[in-house]
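Retro notes
What went well: the complex prediction finally ran end to end.
Inputs used:
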Amino acid sequence: MDLSSFAQARHRRGLAALWLFGLGLAGTFLLAVGYGAVEIGPGQSIAILAAQTGLDLPWEFTRQQEAVLLAIRLPRAVAGVLVGGALAASGAALQGLFRNPLADPALIGVSNGAALAAVVAIVLGAGIVRLVPALPRDLLLPLAAFGGGLATTFLVYRIASRDGRTDVATMLLAGVAMNAMAGAGIGFMVFLSDDQQLRDLNYWLLGSLGGITWDRLVLVAPLMLIGILSLPFFARPLNAMLLGESEAVHLGFSVERSKRAIVVLAALATGTSVAITGVIGFVGLVVPHLVRLTAGPDHRLLLPISILFGASLVLIADLFARTLVLPAELPIGIVTACVGGPFFLWLLLRRRGPGGW
Amino acid sequence: MLRADDIQVRYGSAEVLRGPSLSVAPGEVVAVLGPNGAGKSTLLAVLAGTLRPHRGEAALDGRALADWSPRALALRRAVLPQSSELAFGFPVLEVVLLGRSPHAGATTRAADLAIAEACLAEAEVTHLAGRLYTTLSGGERQRVQLARVLAQIDFPKLDFPDAGQGGEARYLLLDEPTSSLDLAHQHATLRTARRAAERGIGVLAILHDLNLAAMYADRLVVLSRGELAAEGTPAEVLTEALVREAFDLPVHVTRHPTRGCPQISPI
């Protein structure tokens, strides 16, 4: 076998996949901003966006279309892209870190840990702000969610790791315990909350991209972008860590430092996602797995493609969430769980076949 | 020179290493022998720089391993693990290319590929290059890992007589490199270790097969209960009294019919 042509073919396939998923995201984005009570064609969407920068394109659009796109559809779609990218990047990075394809931010309790902290912020927020007046109210929620996500990630990781190896069963069971404890805490907060808070909480615990405004997005987007754009830089240590942590050290990587950075960045990405949209499960599990099937497990491709695909998937899920039961809206977490749950079971069954994951 | 001095390691209250000292020079094959639980793998981890001893110090070229950056150390020594599983299905070629990680920035893709190709051939796994690592047998995996560590220390580039001698010598630490291999590949792996030594690489291998060690090692080191029980050439170390004492097994020592090195037969 000719090794260099084999390597080249793989390289080309990887680049093709990157382009394919990139174009896919662009198409999904245009579909997501165009579909709804007010129809906006793909060309019109592009023309509206171009018009904002002073460019005149040959597609005509109405004032109403422009207003709907800019004020409602666009922030929602941008939030979808960010959340999908953040969850998928966290999922892919955590799976590499745990050396395990079942590590999903929601499954191992990270999302719920973030959710608990955020719920505490919603219910007790007024009191906290009174205690620390310097803290802006709008930053409290993302910061709390980030802290909750970080604490849970760290705990699960410490519990499941011994001698540089992470035990699958321990990790998932630790996740079950984390979810149960966070669930109890969330339940207690629901018990404490008044009617208005309850409405906020309920909608938010099942995940929703509804009600996203530019104001809320602008606060959190930079934090999410840090997580999304930094994680791909850890592709090489993550590749080496697939051999084992000591092996990665032997290969010259500062494993402890990379591990800490990855945990913090994944918690940042997941926590801030939870802060603006609530808990959207299974994206971090399903996306990296499907990407691995098409582009292979090399993190240099896996991480960027997962970000693109995760963004597309959340946009599609949101499209279903807001059109399935018109005129009402389904929480998006229900849509992703309906698809992700069976997928998870399929993964467990497939595991019996040869070739591992 | 890669050396460890007066190494003491405890796991909880159990004292695993009680002050053995050991050195590997460029161009020699040292076999570490000893019964299970003697502390062989722990000593290897200390020499690899991944385990800090409680007392004593491991050093490369006179500089403590703790003072080396992980990457600088990775350019000078590679470690073959006892077994290595991969969570995801990487092709064998990519696994071997992972060995080139510490060279990132100082090498080209084409050079890495050429080195990977030569190392695959040396470990006799060229035919597996396109296979997924997760579909290989234990023995095949061990040979792929051997190719990976050879790629890490530039094995194919060192093919002139005294390359790697002096300040830039490389070291290869092998933890039971033959444990999953069939008879022919056990010998092939140790022949590779010998070839590495001929190219100026210092090789340290943990072995369980005393006869294999006698045939390929320049020097044997016997560990027992965390202490150095014996050290020397195969002929000096593999005596009936010493093997009975260290391994708790009565043996008869003969000579290899063609090579003349000692061979052990349990009685």
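What we learned: Chain A touches chain B at residues 1, 3-4, 6-7, 10, 95, 99-101, 236, 239-240, 242-244, 246-247, 249-255, 292, 296-298, 354-357 (CB under 8 Å).
What to try next: split runs per interface for comparison.
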